[in-house]
């Protein structure tokens, strides 16, 4: 409760909110302490002479891994991570040994004999032969071009393979990176030797083994935790707590002055932050369920129980976000009014509606207190229910060992179960009272317009909707929307409570849970998610400018029994086919189809990434195997430049300039701090072990904490700063204390630091150069193409949301005309379980779209600082477009939640008595979205003939209104609205599908749901037009002389025909 009360506290400018959150989190502090102790242990091994000699000249590599992969995960999850690391290193070692065996087999025996003879002649008598031979080897005196070529071929193939592994399986990035590191060692040093040296890789394998042992022991004895425990902890911190913040925010909304745009804007900003926090928390929790099933744990809830709870998270997230619909809609209206300065039709209509609301006392200032009073009880009970859930999850997640060893306290278990049951009963009672009694308070200001005997409007108001005495229900619909979103949210909280009650009745005491279906779950866990960030790479694991991953499963832990039936027939609506060839028929056709697919794969982003990975490896490997540069490469440790170049690559280009500068900054700061740590711990000597450990740990610890709790976009900076500090102090210590194994000595402190930092920069520069091809990517290009791809995805989401709704409506009406339609309807709808899975899948797509837009926010900031070679960047327009797209995602989520709850009769009202689902209008909407997306992505001008969706909505609304009036008795004699009297903002009152308004209709439980759907659709259409206007400013518009006047002429004719009027002769002539 304490955290939830701070829902709207303004963020501090000095200390970021994520730092405060990390400092307040006991788990983060415990994890940080564990990571620091592990790092200190690795530093102690470095300064201890015995262990340093055992680890070898790369002894500091253990401390580097402690910075790169600190023990921040639960034991089983970290063990799985270490297993992937070990597999990668062994694969690289095996492939490197094969390269060495092949390279030695092709050596020229005559050349080798001559090289050995020359080396023997160059020996000096006073110097040990072994030391001299080492110098000869690393000077490249035994290099053989044929052997080097074989090593190069093996390196190219191995780097390409590890690149593909990294691209296709993001969760195996650790496997690919460390496998490549070992392969680099074998292929960089192997060609220099004339005899088998299969243990060269031990220079990295031994420090890694030391670190793995320390890390696993620290996880077992220093604040040990399981995935089960961490999952429940994150459920509380990242899901339930934001839900409570959103509930508390509603009370703040009711207390804000309606005339203060600034106050409403602040609430809107807080609401968006809470929604983003909730979506990020849910997306982080869903894939972790698979790992919970891979461990042995002690707890009340099993991994299967966590899976059951996780199925509520997507819906809970969407319905919690939906609570801010009222706030967002009111704020959007206030922003529109603040920007409107012209006397156009829309502005005049808004003024007319507002005047009518004030005259009848139906304005928001009148209804908002009523809505607040009516919903107070239900909102309070929702908050109590989340407190109860929070308390129950806390109890399930605490005192695991103590309760496991103790005998079950039956009285306490029954009291806990009774508390859950009582909470559910109170919540259901409050919900029932709100729906049956409290919500009816909103109708009291409107009851005087209806006849007491019949509950209908007087005839004069029915026959003349434009009568000044007729009320407008715009504000009532807004209040109904709030009531509907609150009811939907409460129903999901009640559903989660029922799940908790069911689990509590089965899980009364902690027990030991063993893994089940290990192989299948491990495979799913290894596949991971495409959007998992790689902190070192300058880019992304998925293309932010493309939404090709449209068929991802909702939950990686979903069992086979609950999966939706596969669609074996019918066309995939998103499947692309070539227009240049017919489907294959013969075996030869199929061969060429597969050959073409193979060729396309070679051009795929994953294959191109593997090729980049191999090319940059060969480019930085060549100096190590050339006789003239071999010693220079060895003396200056060029291997690290090669490693840094490989880890800096990414499958898809991101904000390359910003990413590169961030890594350069981290390296430079790490260099300065590393030199400071060395001189603080060593002074002018060769290093004091106590001082070096203390100084290095003190400087690395803050960056390790920031790495644990910072947003992903900053992780690379903290990580590289810590790695560079260890580079400087580690190499300095080795150069002064391991002289027996060192062939060259680069010095200490400043003398060494700038060289090591330069290696890192060379590696990142090489990776940056390779990533520039085939074309460079900047923040500005990334922003534009991501926003364009999001518009295209919105069209797909609209189709997905309406598809099932329309087919179910068609099935309800019995209008399936043919067996083909029936088959299609059955395939799309399937069972109720399939429909539920489809709804969850749509929710995941919306969350994905929202996450991508959230991840784009830093790019909008960095784009301002990029050099504008072609002029000033229109950042303000892109920010407006970004805000509109966030609003589109919100209203699409609101629409999806609403359509699933409409009953068949009200579905018919929405389909046939409103203009929104008119096929012609939907076609125009989808076509407009496609044109806007293509125009923005390619920088093309928008066609001048592109219609306004708002104008088309007005036209179809009038058409529906006119047709319905003609169907009513005496409808042809009633006075319809005159041309120019209606606009987009007038499609809100009794005209939106409610042609027979009665008091019973306004009291219908389905009307709030219908109102929410109407408002969501109206805002989607409005935002589409606003996006179009912004893109017109960005990309321009083609000219079509005479088209506007022709369109106005035909618009007048359509309006006259629709409203039952005839165009005047003068109008016809014009």
UniProtKB/TrEMBL annotation:
Residues 524-543, 549-579 are annotated as: Disordered. Residues 774-1038 form the DUF2421 domain. The chain crosses the membrane at residues 31-48, 54-73, 80-102, 148-165, 172-194, 200-223, 661-681, 687-709, 716-734, 754-774. Pfam families: ArAE_2_N, BRE4, FUSC_2. Residues 417-444 form a coiled coil. It is a multi-pass membrane protein. Residues 16-444 form the Putative ER transporter 6TM N-terminal domain. It comes from the Eukaryota. Residues 631-770 form the Integral membrane bound transporter domain. It is found in: Membrane. Keywords: Coiled coil, Membrane, Transmembrane, Transmembrane helix. GO terms for cellular component: membrane. This is ER transporter 6TM N-terminal domain-containing protein. It comes from Pterulicium gracile. The lineage of its organism: Eukaryota, Fungi, Dikarya, Basidiomycota, Agaricomycotina.
